Amino acid sequence: MSATVKCPTCGKAVAWTEAEKYRPFCSERCKLIDLGEWASGSYAIPAESNPKEHENSQDEF
Ligand SMILES: [Zn+2]
After folding, report:
1. What is the pLDDT of residue 23?
2. Is the Cα torsion angle 29, 23, 10, 42 positive or negative in sign?
């Protein structure tokens, strides 16, 4: 008996066996891609919060 799952990243069928180290992902690459999206996904860090830059531009005006 062997079950298969679909790789969450690329949708490829992956055998659910001991041999598949990265299951449910088909490969290490797909696993890393998925983890990366988790880390940088919905939590957007506001990049333009630099008060000094605002002060400088006001001085020039
Ligand atoms: Zn994959």
Report:
1. 94
2. negative
> Could you say which residues of the chain have pLDDT below 70?
1, 38-61
Q: Which two tokens stand for residue 22?
A: 């990265």
Q: Residue 54 has what pLDDT?
A: 58
Q: Which domains does the chain have, with CATH numbers?
A: 4-59 (3.30.50.10)
Q: How far is the CA of 44 from the centre of ligand 1 (A)?
A: 25
Whole-prediction pTM: 0.56
Q: How far is the CA of 38 from the centre of ligand 1 (A)?
A: 16
From ligand 1's centre to the CA of 48, what distance in Å?
35
